[in-house]
């Protein structure tokens, strides 16, 4: 990929959260890649399952899929002291920040114009919390963040339809071992 070839790097957590956005952007002809950076995921087995499903969605729509490093040790260090926080608490802010920062740095290094994410697409997430972290990271890394609300514009309905149509593996917890215990 040459410098500034792509408009957007989309940070994704899994196939179910990203499929509607990926299909929509691909059909609009947006030049973008999907970035899978999720050291928060509870085990290697679960990580690989989500990664492979996300890659399958990308292949379906002809979108390039980039895998970041699976570094759970660094993630546990990041959220140390906040393990018992409830979902939407400080642990989640730190988790969002870590993943968004990696996406921003990758996007900048590879010449993407901006970055975005689907981290706030689920109704279980606080979109404002994700956006607050994205804003800080965007300023610090000096690269624009696309604040499009991916819950709107029919994407949520499309997402539900695609999960069925593609028979996507749809996990029942956010990702980390603490969200699994809920
Ligand atoms: S619940 Fe989800 S967003 Fe929150 S820390 Fe765990 S994996 Fe990250």
The residue ranges in which pLDDT falls below 50 over 5 or more consecutive positions are none
Sum up the overall morphology in one term: globular
How helix-rich are the residues, as a percent range? Answer: 40-55%
Strand order of the largest sheet: 3-2-1-4-5
* Order of helix and strand elements from N to C terminus: EHEHEHHEHEHH
SS content category: alpha/beta
CATH superfamily: HUPs
Short description:
This protein is of the alpha/beta class and 182 residues long.
Report on the structure:
- The longest helix has 21 residues, at 90-110.
- The model has no long low-confidence stretch (mean pLDDT 95).
- This protein is α/β, with parallel strands linked by helices.
- The protein is 49% helix and 11% strand.
- The N and C termini lie far apart (42 Å).
- Helix 1 (15-28) runs parallel beside helix 2 (44-60) and helix 4 packs across helix 5 (127-141).
- The protein has one domain: HUPs (Rossmann fold).
- A five-stranded parallel sheet has the order 3-2-1-4-5, sandwiched between helices.
- It is globular.
- The chain has helices spanning 15-28, 44-60, 72-78, 90-110, 127-141, 155-165, 177-180; strands spanning 8-12, 32-36, 64-67, 114-117, 144-145.
- Iron/sulfur cluster is lined by residues 40, 87, 91-92, 95, 174-176, 178-179.
